[in-house]
Structures are given as structure tokens and as C-alpha cells.
Amino acid sequence: MGKEITSRSEDYSQWYIDLIKKADLAENSDVRGCMVIKPYGYSIWEKMQQALDKMFKDTGHVNAYFPLFVPKSMFEAEEKNAEGFAKECAIVTHYRLKTDPSAKGKLMVDPAAKLEEELVVRPTSEAIIWSTYKKWIQSYRDLPLLINQWANVVRWEMRTRLFLRTAEFLWQEGHTAHATAYEAIKETEQMLDVYAEFAETFMAMPVIKGKKSEGERFPGAIDTYCIEAMMQDGKALQAGTSHFLGQNFAKAFDVQFTSKEGKMELVWGTSWGVSTRLIGALIMAHSDDDGLVLPPKLAPIHVVIVPIFKNEAELLKISEQAEIIAKDLRQQGYSVKFDNRDTHKPGYKFAEYELKGVPVRIAIGPRDLENKTVEVARRDTKEKQLMKMEEVAANIPALLDDIQNNIYQKAFKFRTQMTTTVDSYEEFKKVLDEKGGFVSAHWDGTSETEAAIKEETKATIRCIPLDAAEEEGTCVYSGKPSSKRVLFARAY
Predict the structure, then answer these.
(1) Is residue 153 helix, strand or coil?
(2) How far is CA 226 from CA 1, 231, 454, in A?
């Protein structure tokens, strides 16, 4: 099977695009900047959705759905939020088309169908949701309100890349309302922990939890918490954010409640979200030149069984044994594919499932039937072993757990190697240019220094780690006093 994937070392960006297309995850659509998520790619998103949705519900959240369109005046209500997203907004101005008399079969905007008020296609849903919360919240008894929605949003990006940055993308966005600042902050921190647990437990992707600098905060937030991951090319990727909104949106939409003491008070809010960008993170964190490397917990297919046969009689005998193994594994909750196609040779199938990142491949041939063994290959290390046929179904769960753990440990070791502590600006620039990765450095806390470093090096403050220890030092750029280190990196 000719995979024709550009190697990572040759051109990482092209390797990423080649892999997405060859593994049948997604493709560019006829709409500029948008993508078609193909069934195999969407099945990975479904696995992510299912895991996250359970985690949300286990922490007391419920799902709802809010409109795609936001009246422009409503969108403008929270000034910082509106300004922050203004350049990415798509706007609906008319509600009807009509036949163009100058060209048969062509349509034109009907001037008579101009909307009284323009509608913003949601880039995020704070405005429409907080305008709704005003109707739902009157008393402290109505709080907390813990709501999530699974939806699509539109951000008119100029430079797009499949999964990482597209004009339309799928995500979830949580929006919660609370009676006190303390409760809202605890919610913000809790959801950051949920994202970190998901990234590490399901995606096998180690992350660093931290706070964003003021210059990197979500527009309209008091504080933005984030999880940051390291990709194999030494660039960072923001994998999830959780925002403490304070009372900014409550003020903008006049969302008040009567407290236990009978006083009218403004509600405290949060919002948090992850998107299909996580599929991009999954690809870039683990995959290799032969294709995807998927952690078992998110793999659409856990085990593929490939028969090796010369004729129908051999296939029939192999199929009987393969179905027994497949049934045993499915009863344990695993997804199994038995590829009995006679249109492709075993070598083609091996390459195909390697490309798609299926964690475990079982090969069964006539000799295996005689010996009552099967060949078991793992995708992460390419190692093969013979297993007794009657023990396969019992051994696979432990093997899948080992693969999941191994993928995580490999990524963790890489991140450790790609994290460098520096104390001078010269060293800072040298590490960025020659090594990449996270650079731990002192920063004086000013937006001027942050902007200057970004302008000169294209590196941004990825986060101020939550576990950063107090450490007296001097800013690598300005030489001014600093009390803790922050993480810089070039990023997606």
C-alpha cells in the first residue's frame, strides 16, 4: 500500500496534512477554510464526546442547545468579548434570495429582504446564553446553573489548517452561573482538572495546567486557565481553556438574583471549552511516519484481525476461529474488525491499519490454526508476539492498557526533554531557534515585555503554571525583578 506520507523530519506541516488525508480523517471542503470530517475522523470525535460528556455529567452538568445566530446588539453588550471576536465574525444581513433577471438559473440577494438587525453567526455563545440566563435566574434557589452545549461555531480565520484552525469547527462550551465568586472560581478550576484528566487519561497526552497572562486571556474573562501540550515538532498547543468571567456578562445582560438575605446581587459566571482541535493534538502528539498512533481509549477500532489465506477453504476455517476471538473481545467492550476482504492482500491490510493507528493487529494463517497460536502486533512499538489462541481474548485487555500507558510515557519523556530552563535572553532565543519546546524563564509581568518578546521571537507565554514555585529572579528580557517562572513557546 503506497502511503506516500511526507516524513516528519522533512516537513512536519506537510506530514500532518498527508496523514489526515491518507488516514481518511478529513478533507478540505468547497467552502474556503472549512472541512469535511470523514467517518473515521468523526468516530474519534465521537469517542472524545462520549468520554467528556460523561465527565461533565458526573460533575453535575446538563446539556442544552442555544441558537446559532446572535443579534448584533446582543453580541455588542459585553464590550471586550465583542471586540475580541469582531475580526472573526460572519454576519447575516439578508434572509432571502431571488432569481437574477440578468442570468438564468442565478440567484441574487433580495434587497427587500434586508434584516432589521444584522445577526452574528456565533463565534462563541456567551452573549446568547447570558441573555437567556436573565430569564432563568431570579433567586439564589435557581443557582448554580451548570449547562454545557455541544455545537458548531464559526470564526472567519484567514489562515486555516485541518482540525487545528478552521472557519467552522465542532466543540463543546460550558456556561455556568453562580451565587458567589468562590463557587465560580472553584467551577473554573474543576473544569480545568476535568480537561487535564481527559487529556492525560484518554488522549495519553501530558499537559501543564496554568493561567494565561493578561494578553492571552479570553476576551471578557477575569482569568483564563488552560492546559498546554507539547507537539513532536517542539511547538506548544493549547488543548483546552476554562474561564472565570467574574460578573462581566452578568453586568452586560443585567443578570441578577435575590440572595438568601433578600438583596439583589449580580451573578458570577464561567465558561469553558474544547474543540475538534483535540484531534489535531492527538495526531501531532503521537503519530509517526507510518501513520496514526492512537491511544486505545480513543481508537475507533481496538483490534483488527487479518486472515492469511490462499483459498476459500482456508478462509472459512480461519473465519471460524477469528469470530470466536472477536466475539470474546466484543463481550468485553472492545471494538473488533475482522477484515476478510479477498480484494486486498494481507500486506496491504497491514499497512492500512498501521496507517489508521489501530492499536492491535492479529494475524491468523493456516499454520497458526495448526499450532493453535496467532501473531499479535502492537501499533505503538511495532513489536510482534505469538499468543496461544485460547488466551488471546484474555490477554488483549492488559496489552491495550500497556499500549495506552506506553504512549503516555513516551509523550511525557519527550515533553521533559523539550522543556528548558534559561536565565538570559540570548539563551532564550538560542533554545527557541535550535531546540524548540517549552522555555521556562522569568518574566517581569508586564504586557510590554510580553509583546516585545512575541514580536522578536514569535514565542508567547503559554501559561503561568499553577504549580510554579516562588523563585526570586530577573526577567530575561527587561532585567526587572520577577517572582516566578512562566512557560514560553512557539505555538499553534
Answers:
(1) strand
(2) 41, 16, 19
Query: Are 471 and 486 spatial neighbours (Cβ–Cβ below 8 Å)?
Result: no
pTM of the model: 0.96
Quick one: how far is CA 117 from the chain centroid? 34
Sign of CA dihedral 338, 343, 349, 353: negative
Between β-strands 460-465 and 208-211, what pairing exists: parallel, antiparallel or unpaired? antiparallel
Within 10 angstroms of residue 261's Cβ, the number of other Cβ atoms is 7
Q: What is the pLDDT along the chain (492 residues), one digit of tens a residue?
A: 556 899 999 999 999 999 999 999 999 999 999 999 999 999 999 999 999 999 999 999 999 999 999 999 999 999 999 999 999 999 999 999 999 988 888 999 999 999 999 999 999 999 999 999 999 999 999 999 999 999 999 999 888 999 999 999 999 999 999 999 999 999 999 999 999 999 999 999 999 999 999 999 999 999 999 999 999 999 999 999 999 999 999 999 999 999 999 999 999 999 999 999 999 999 999 999 999 999 999 999 999 999 999 999 999 999 999 999 999 999 999 999 999 999 999 999 999 999 999 999 999 999 999 999 999 999 999 999 999 999 999 999 999 999 999 999 999 999 999 999 999 999 999 999 999 999 999 999 999 999 999 999 999 999 999 999 999 999 999 999 999 999 999 999
